[in-house]
Design a protein that fits this description.
- This protein has two domains: 80 residues, 2-Layer Sandwich (Alpha-Beta Plaits); 153 residues, 3-Layer(aba) Sandwich (Rossmann fold).
- Helices cover 27% and strands 32% of the residues.
- The longest helix has 13 residues.
- The chain is globular.
Length: 274
């Protein structure tokens, strides 16, 4: 099978890389490999068309410098590509997030993720910080919602920490299917995955709500989250920058939630509310 690949050099990498992947996915690109410079995107030659990048709006955004090269590839060894570009992530000497081809170590929590096109390998700062938050709170016997679950990595982490019931939701069909795959791969039994958005949260109640999405969706949905939060419940929010905290906090404070702790990494933040 013949593929067309585009190698994108992106400065700064975030959040532009995430947006590039999202827009290319809509254009028909089917596989992506992130690296230190940006991302390599692949599309089958039979699906390729001239001008395919014309509607990739972020390429014209002057806040980012994005250049690219194009190449035709007769065959792609996807396992080799993942192995070359996907390195394990270790968090607080307790958690290791790895691909299936990496060896298991003796860390307490071992999570296997086949990310494919989904968001949430642990490499992104927000996922890394959300795992740190989960390690610092009491998850045992709690009901948990992972909103915008991506690969399902945070839902998997919650079950490994002792949650009695976890529900994971994502609007993207690829993420929905990928989460199911990863949950099975990690032998999780207490996670249910749904395809959809916040409108699914009817007659639900949770002790802990995880939402690693983006600022605008969080602002739109925070009232829905608080409506399904049990008394003294915890909300973990991420997917936004340090300078966005006042905007998020102004909205969240309307519902009697207060900031407890903040994790920060390269200007990304993850905030614990209670």
């Amino acid at each position: 099978m013949i593929y067309i690949s585009y190698t994108f050099q992106i400065t700064p990498r975030e959040p532009a890389t995430e947006i590039v992947i999202a827009e290319l996915g809509q254009a028909g690109f089917e596989s992506f490999v992130e690296n230190e410079q940006g991302v390599i995107a692949y599309i089958q030659k039979e699906e390729y068309r001239e001008g395919i990048l014309d509607d990739i709006f972020i390429l014209t955004n002057k806040e980012f410098k994005i250049t690219y090269t194009k190449e035709e590839i007769t065959q792609v060894n996807w396992n080799a590509e993942w192995e070359k570009n996907f390195n394990p992530i270790e968090i607080d000497d307790l958690v290791r997030i790895r691909a299936p081809f990496h060896k298991k170590t003796d860390l307490k929590y071992d999570i296997i993720i086949e990310p494919k096109m989904s968001f949430g390998t642990g490499h992104h700062q927000t996922t890394h910080m959300m795992v740190k938050h989960l390690l610092q709170i009491d998850v045992k016997n709690k009901t948990v919602l992972d909103m915008g679950c991506g690969t399902g990595v945070l839902a998997i982490m919650a079950e490994k920490l002792g949650a009695k019931q976890v529900e994971a939701i994502d609007i993207d069909n690829w993420c929905y299917l990928n989460s199911i795959e990863n949950i099975e791969r990690n032998n999780c039994e207490k996670i249910t995955v749904y395809e959809g958005e916040a409108s699914l949260l009817v007659n639900k109640k949770y002790d802990i709500i995880i939402a690693n999405i983006n600022r605008n969706i969080l602002l739109n949905d925070i009232q829905t989250y608080t409506n399904v939060l049990n008394e003294n419940g915890i909300v973990l929010l991420s997917g936004f920058y340090t300078e966005d905290i006042p905007i998020i906090d102004k909205e969240v404070s309307k519902f009697n939630l207060k900031i407890q702790t903040i994790e920060e990494m390269e200007n990304w933040v993850a905030v614990k509310y209670q």
